[in-house]
TrEMBL record:
<keyword id="KW-0662">Pyridine nucleotide biosynthesis</keyword>
<comment type="similarity">
    <text>Belongs to the NadD family.</text>
</comment>
<feature type="domain" description="Cytidyltransferase-like">
    <location>
        <begin position="16"/>
        <end position="192"/>
    </location>
</feature>
<dbReference type="InterPro" id="IPR005248">
    <property type="entry name" value="NadD/NMNAT"/>
</dbReference>
<dbReference type="InterPro" id="IPR014729">
    <property type="entry name" value="Rossmann-like_a/b/a_fold"/>
</dbReference>
<keyword id="KW-0548">Nucleotidyltransferase</keyword>
<keyword id="KW-0067">ATP-binding</keyword>
<comment type="pathway">
    <text>Cofactor biosynthesis; NAD(+) biosynthesis; deamido-NAD(+) from nicotinate D-ribonucleotide: step 1/1.</text>
</comment>
<keyword id="KW-0808">Transferase</keyword>
<dbReference type="GO" id="GO:0004515">
    <property type="term" value="F:nicotinate-nucleotide adenylyltransferase activity"/>
</dbReference>
<protein>
    <recommendedName>
        <fullName>Probable nicotinate-nucleotide adenylyltransferase</fullName>
        <ecNumber>2.7.7.18</ecNumber>
    </recommendedName>
</protein>
<keyword id="KW-0547">Nucleotide-binding</keyword>
<comment type="function">
    <text>Catalyzes the reversible adenylation of nicotinate mononucleotide (NaMN) to nicotinic acid adenine dinucleotide (NaAD).</text>
</comment>
<dbReference type="Pfam" id="PF01467">
    <property type="entry name" value="CTP_transf_like"/>
</dbReference>
<dbReference type="InterPro" id="IPR004821">
    <property type="entry name" value="Cyt_trans-like"/>
</dbReference>
<keyword id="KW-0520">NAD</keyword>
Length: 233
């Protein structure tokens, strides 16, 4: 599916799924599909151009976006959102949401993230402001139990949690919904290590993405192209 736009009616809930997607894998797709089906709205997968709080990705932004495009080609209501690729500078989520809000003060906006990302939320730029800008949809993730959070995050989960799809549409931001899809163990870190080691990695992501990685020789040295050039999109 391509980026929705043009004259299509505005959806009543805008759901963004940010990530490095280095590379996109079946675990990402599983939670995106689960969120789409639970919330009954399209999911906009938003690759970070320059992701904060981590070493530079193994593949360039354009390679990561090209792989994501391939992964989404056959997916219903999952689309790529390029705003963090086009903005330049560090891809701070709070800045993305503030820019989005400028034209849509009343829209219901939600951010999909894994439980490990939520556990690290206090390190994000202006993290408390995120709650006034968007709802959070937290996907459970193997190895990241939500019962083991820092006290301020546990308090936010307690105060804002328990939302359902209808609750996210009633107010613009500030609620938390937990997505309890079947746990999927994939991680991009493990995938990159398997590719570098010549292990069994192809079944962990869509075939078209595996073909792209082979074709461009990504991640073979444990780091991909180091952020250099990419095939045209
Ligand atoms: N298997 C999974 N289950 C649940 N959430 C996931 C899973 N994989 C990734 N996520 C979530 O998707 C978002 C984007 O993830 P990211 O692109 O960093 O993938 P990753 O597999 O965590 O990569 P890396 O290992 O390089 O950190 C994050 O919020 C992360 O928590
Ligand atoms: O804004 C921040 O400070 C911030 C810090 C860490 C992560 N994020 C965002 O969280 C999403 C998942 O991050 P990652 O590193 O797990 O791919 C991605 O969209 C990042 O831009 C954002």
């Amino acid at each position: 599916m391509t980026d929705p736009g043009g004259s299509a009616p505005a959806p009543d809930l805008l759901l963004f799924y940010g990530g490095t997607f280095d590379p996109v894998h079946n675990g990402h797709l599983a939670i995106a599909r689960a969120a789409r089906d639970r919330l009954h709205c399209p999911v906009r997968l938003m690759p970070a151009g320059d992701p904060p709080h981590r070493p530079p990705p193994g593949a360039s932004a354009e390679h990561r976006a090209a792989m994501l495009r391939l992964a989404l080609a056959e997916e219903r209501e999952l689309c790529m959102d390029r705003r963090e690729l086009e903005r330049g500078g560090r891809s701070y989520t709070v800045e993305t949401l503030r820019a989005l809000r400028r034209g849509r003060p009343c829209a219901s906006v939600a951010l999909l993230l894994g439980a490990d990302s939520f556990a690290g939320l206090m390190s994000w730029k202006d993290w408390r402001d995120l709650f006034s800008l968007a709802h959070l949809v937290i996907a459970e993730r193997a190895g990241s139990p939500l019962g083991d959070l820092a006290a301020p995050l546990a308090a936010e989960l307690e105060a804002r949690g328990g939302a359902d799809a209808a609750a996210l549409r009633r107010v613009p931001a500030g609620r938390i919904l937990r997505l309890q899809q079947p746990l999927s163990g994939e991680s991009a870190t493990r995938l990159r290590a398997l590719i570098a080691a010549g292990g069994d990695w192809r079944r962990l992501l869509p075939a078209a993405v595996a073909g792209y990685i082979d074709h461009h020789g990504l991640y073979r040295d444990g780091g991909g192209d180091g952020g250099a050039g990419a095939a045209p999109l």
